[in-house]
Specification:
Blueprint: E1 29-33, H1 37-43, E2 48-55, E3 58-65, E4 68-74, H2 79-94, E5 95-96, E6 101-102, E7 110-119, E8 129-137, H3 153-163, E9 173-176, H4 179-184, E10 190-197, H5 218-223, E11 226-227, E12 230-236, H6 239-249, E13 252-262, E14 267-268, H7 272-289
Helix pairs in contact: 2-6
The chain binds 1-O-phosphono-alpha-D-ribofuranose.
1-O-phosphono-alpha-D-ribofuranose binds near residues 34, 116 and 236.
């Protein structure tokens, strides 16, 4: 079936609508960052850069490091952007832009998020690194896709029971990381945990400036949940969408977080840029030394 002009939107130069990219512009190994400014903070470590493109908040650099072709792209903030970035990146490899048909032989992409996040456990210090083994999405993105077989329904059920928030009409979805991809980036420097993704930075992460929260113990309820010996460790705004859309499309994804805030102790990193730079260098080192990507 040929996709209509209003569904698969291509620019006059043949690039995909929001990302402004052509199929040959991306690698199958893709690092996602939230901040467009972080793209060059990653690509400055490449041996060479072949592509630099930007449209809106979506900045893309593709280059080589130690013989590996790597793309780094900024998603901006939030899972609404993740919906655009992941659908369009998948289209670049799995839809033929000339026939506008889905290809029969699918290409699998590997996504590594290098993001920032706030811990909700007092023993996870600022400037530490955390890998999300599962992500819980409060943002509703996956509810708009036929996603049943890709979600962790047992985690969802236990969480619903623990939170008891049915009266608030909150029904988060849960998706796991790709274990094989995660193993590449594991070490004793990285803590593992369940990440909560939400649709905002203030109220939806339990922050009160001038507006009163509806659920006054939001973070405390999350922090006291335990699933198969794992805690909910941190809050951010993209990982659940990334895990969900990667799984639905048949791609692999892992989310790595530099912890900048500790919401339980009230601390905020004094060296956030350094922590992010260290996570970038750590991730690239693990990536180039792996034979699995
Ligand atoms: C909020 O400040 C932003 O920072 C975190 C959140 O997920 C949100 O996108 O991640 P990034 O630093 O990767 O953008």
């Amino acid at each position: 079936m040929s996709l209509g002009n209003s569904e698969l939107i291509l620019n006059p130069d043949g690039s995909i609508y929001h990302l402004n990219l052509l199929p040959e512009d991306i690698s199958t190994t893709i690092i996602t960052v939230g901040d467009p400014g972080r793209v060059s903070a990653v690509s400055k470590y490449f041996d060479s850069i072949e592509i630099k493109k930007q449209h809106r908040e979506f900045c893309t650099h593709t280059g080589h490091l130690d013989g590996k072709r790597i793309t780094v792209i900024s998603t901006g903030i939030g899972t609404d952007n993740i919906d655009i970035v992941f659908n369009e990146l998948d289209a670049l490899v799995n839809i033929n832009f000339k026939t506008r048909e889905v290809k029969s032989n699918k290409i699998q992409l590997s996504f590594i998020r290098i993001g920032t996040s706030g811990s909700i456990q007092p023993d996870i210090p600022v400037d530490s690194f955390l890998m999300s083994t599962s992500a819980i999405g409060f943002d509703n993105l996956l509810h708009f896709y036929d996603s049943g077989q890709f979600t962790n329904t047992s985690l969802e059920k236990e969480l619903y029971r623990h939170l008891g928030w049915d009266r608030h009409k909150i029904h988060p979805y849960a998706v796991d990381f790709d274990k094989n991809l995660g193993e590449i980036f594991a070490s004793n420097r990285i803590r593992f945990g369940i990440t909560c993704t939400n649709s905002g930075f203030y109220g939806p992460q339990g922050r009160t400036l001038r507006l009163n929260p509806k659920i006054t113990d939001f973070n405390e309820r999350l922090a006291s949940f335990i699933y198969q010996n794992q805690q909910i460790t941190n809050l951010e705004m993209e990982t659940a969408g990334i895990y969900g859309l990667a799984k639905l499309h048949g791609h692999r994804a892992v989310s790595l977080n530099a912890i900048l805030a500790n919401r339980a102790t009230g601390e905020f990193s004094k060296g956030g840029a350094k922590a992010v730079d260290e996570l970038i260098r750590y991730t690239l080192k693990k990536l180039v030394s792996s034979s699995l990507i």
